[in-house]
Amino acid sequence: MKPTAGERAFGYLNALLMIGLCIVTLYPFLYVLFASLSEATSFLQNRGLLLGPAGFDLSAYQAVFRNPMIIKGYENTLLYVVLGTAINLVMTAIGAYVVSRPNLYFKDAIMFFIVITMVFSGGLIPSYLLVNQLGMMNTMWALLIPGAINTFNMIIMRTSFQSVPVSLEESARMDGASDWTILFRIVIPLSMPVIAVMILWYAVGHWNSYFSALVYLRNSEKYPLQLVLRDILIANSTDSMMVGSASDDKYAIGETIKYATIIVSTLPIICLYPFLQKYFVKGVMIGAIKG
Predict the structure, then answer these.
(1) Which residue pairs, CB below 8 angstroms and at least 24 apart, start in 123-131?
(2) Residue 269 within any structural domain of the chain
């Protein structure tokens, strides 16, 4: 059927609106990228929109990667992301599998106490005292163990596990399979879309996390990247990264260094999205259809 003039006009307006939204959404990131690639003095002299680097210069990135704390922060963060995400997936999958079983005793009561943790928590002080009494202060386990299971993620994974046909589990049990075998060889392989979503959510959470490290870590050698960047961006500690710069240029270079640190911390996690994008919508929908 040939579209009417009104329908064509509506389509054009929708396209223009979406293009405008994309520009508004994308420009702040492009501004940070252009600023990080700009020559410091030229960037400070720029007024209005920044549509490209104000004099191409990589000095800000050279200063960032000369800072040994940036490299150490990267190493720590990669360790926390990989190990923390693995712990999260295993613990969440086990918890979701247990509460997804139809023959679980007191299932409703268990789910009630699980869901109530999404609304109420002990707070920072009890959490701090618990971590301290468990001997995890100033260790990476203080960042990984307390948040091993996210309640919302477990509920989504539980809903996905419930969509696996019961007949597969019954057939496996007839062949002598245990619950561990059913979980890791049947349920999880059939739930890979939601597993991919969990990997993305947990990995992004660990990558962006800094507050737990701020509370529980005392040794700067164990700081994740985000906490190192917090010191640079908030505490204005860019002087040590400008070796050889004239005092008049330190403020200007410090501004471009801040933008470079934002790109350095953001780019790796953005590169993870394309590999998981095809699973993302499907995994979320699987976890949301059946309650």
Answers:
(1) 124/215, 128/215, 128/216, 131/216
(2) yes
Q: Is the pLDDT of residue 83 over 90?
A: yes
Residue 281 buriedness (CB in 10 A; 0-12 / 13-18 / 19+):
exposed
- pLDDT classification of 249: cutoffs 50, 70, 90: low
Q: Is the pLDDT of residue 106 over 60?
A: yes
194 CB contacts (<8 Å, ≥6 apart)? 156, 157, 160, 283, 284, 286, 287
Count up the domains in the chain and report the number.
1
Rounded CA separation 262/265 (Å): 5
Give start and end residues of each alpha helix (H) in 209-249.
211-216, 225-233
Whether 122 is covered by a domain: the verdict is: yes
| CATH number (domain holding residue 211) | 1.10.3720.10
Give CA separation, 71 vs 54, 200, 264, in Å.
Answer: 27, 23, 11
pLDDT at position 246: 47
Tell me whether residue 34 is in a domain. Answer: no
Tell me which residue of 75, 70, 30, 72 sits closest to 53, measured CA to CA.
30
Whole domain around residue 99: which residue ranges?
A: 60-289
Please check whether residue 8 lies inside any domain of the structure. Answer: no
What is the pTM assigned to this prediction? 0.75
